[in-house]
Amino acid sequence: MLDVFLISIIIVELITIVFLHNKKRLVEVKLHDLKNTLTILQSLIVLRHKDDLVIDVLQRACLQVKDILVPKKTQSAHICIRDMVLSAIDEWQAIATENIELEVEVPEKQMLICGDKSELKRLLDNLLQNACRAMPDGGKIKLQLKETELTQKQLSHCMVKGKKGKCVALSIQDEGRGITPKLFKKIFRPFVSAFTQGIGLGLTSVCKIVKKNHASLALTSVEGQGSCFSIYFPMMDCFENKAKILVVDDDALQRALLEELLKQDEIKCLAAETPYEALNLMKENPDIDLLITDMLMPNMKGDVLYQELLSINPDLKAIMMSGKKCVNLPENVTFLEKPYKISELKDLISQLLAKQYDS
Q: Does pLDDT of 10 surpass 80?
């Protein structure tokens, strides 16, 4: 009986050691990501770049510190990967050294994937930083985003294997020193780095994010010529040419801006100046998917208008906008505080419409 008791104590102690070891590594990965963000922030401040970009990166650093102290659960959502990539590139182009050229090839078409936006930005940050480190004397980084079909043959050459079929391919290619054959097979292991200044956690983080998103990862590298990381994200069914949005705002400029944004993404848009005009449009078009409205308008508030429209289409979703925080909003209503970023609004629209047309 005593032997069983002693064995039980040993097992508990071993489990505790493993848990603390894994927790330590988790914190190390998060500290590595924070270090990347603070490096970008420092460069932006030194180079005196525009305030809104500095604020964006500072907010990201604050969230990463909070995540280390109080880890949050990741939130998977439908993401327009094109907008996410362009936003991340803006940060890197702002601090890129003169001897690093970044060539970007991104299609106009919006492509939806499912994942956590902050994790995907971290993945992109790590790959871009690795590409820069691989070229200490300068060179070109080519970033390409495209829609493609991942075949079984291509999948067999991937180091991380996800789903075959329709996907979005993100590739980052550099002209750097490449990876030696000795390091190639273990480059994604923790604390393995091709650089003397690296601690070997960036690519480990990339690998984990790829697996978490059921994506695939391929790596090609020639020593002395460069490396190319290709990630294939499963593509979500697109809502283009299906969705119909009703925009209601008594401000003509705001209304025109929203109409222009939606037309860029090939979404059918109906616009109304008054709530009464919106009601008439809804009666004529009961298949409208989403309402975007200002909260405070003459004669009828946005939440009251939404309740009226629900009697015509019970499945209608809505985005309410206001310069003042709103509480106790109806179900299926998302609040967006003014002033808002265009990327933030487009993300909300994409997520709500993708749920509507999710297969």
A: no
Nearest to 84 by CA among 109, 118, 60: 118
**Contact in structure between 234 and 165 (CB atoms under 8 Å):** yes
Report d(CA 359, CA 352) in Å as an integer.
14
Q: What is the pLDDT of residue 231?
A: 94
Rounded to whole angstroms, the Cα distance separating 30 from 39 reads 14
Give the separation between CA 28 and CA 279, rounded to whole angstroms: 55
The torsion of the CA quartet 14, 32, 102, 207, rounded to 10 degrees, works out to 10
Please tell me the predicted confidence (pLDDT) of residue 325.
Answer: 74
Structure tokens at 24: 């330590």
The C-alpha atoms of residue 240 and residue 267 are separated, in whole angstroms, by 6
Q: Which residue, chain included where needed, has tokens 């200002």?
A: 294
- CA-nearest of 114, 170, 108 to 351 is 114
DSSP string, 141-164: EEEEEEEEEE-HHHHHT-SB----
